Amino acid sequence: MFKRLFDVVSALLGLLVFGLPMLAVAAWIRLDSPGPVFFRQERVGRHGKVFRIHKFRTMTVDAEQRGPQLTVGADARVTRVGRVLRANRLDELPQFFDVLAGDMSLVGPRPDVPRYVERWPADLRERVLAVRPGITDPASLKFRDEATLLAQAADPEREYMDVILPRKLALAADYADHASLWTDLAVIGRSVGVLLFR
């Protein structure tokens, strides 16, 4: 209950602080390339509930028809504005609305698309989906350069499924098993540090 209150208050403060910058980003996206400001995609949330995540659009509108759901290296589908937003994690700001809606938390395992969740081991799936997914978590911090790692692989999707995903799931399950206010504050602190000092 306290975690939910913390999430709501933090999301409201986040929207208050970043409201004007978000409007500026929205205008920048519209000027840079044709298409909607927001990217919406089905993700799997707490207890397996499917919801639509919101991000600032960082790719061309036909990105899903032109390639995999993974972003690999200097992906040609990423727009000029998108490269800046991704580098600074600004594309995630609209997820404050997902937090307010109750679909996400500030800190929690990053939500994945249904086709990947179906392939998770059953025991890890149950543990990871026991908590709300989050905007940031230990796994996303550790693998913040995931696109670069995938670009070095001969088969990026196999590398993701066989090497990166199991490690991310282990970190996500460990977070879910030991989540507390203090672990959340520590993750938030690390996330801010990464953004400020990367």
Automatic annotation (TrEMBL):
Q: Which family does it belong to?
A: Belongs to the bacterial sugar transferase family.
- Give one Pfam family, short name only: Bac_transf
Q: Which organism is it from?
A: Scleromatobacter humisilvae
GO MF terms held by the record = phosphotransferase activity, for other substituted phosphate groups
Q: Which domain of life is it from?
A: Bacteria
Residue ranges constituting the Bacterial sugar transferase domain according to the UniProt record: 3-196
* Keywords for this protein: Transferase
Record's protein name: Sugar transferase
User: Is the keyword Metal-binding in the record?
Assistant: no
KW Hydrolase (keyword) present: no
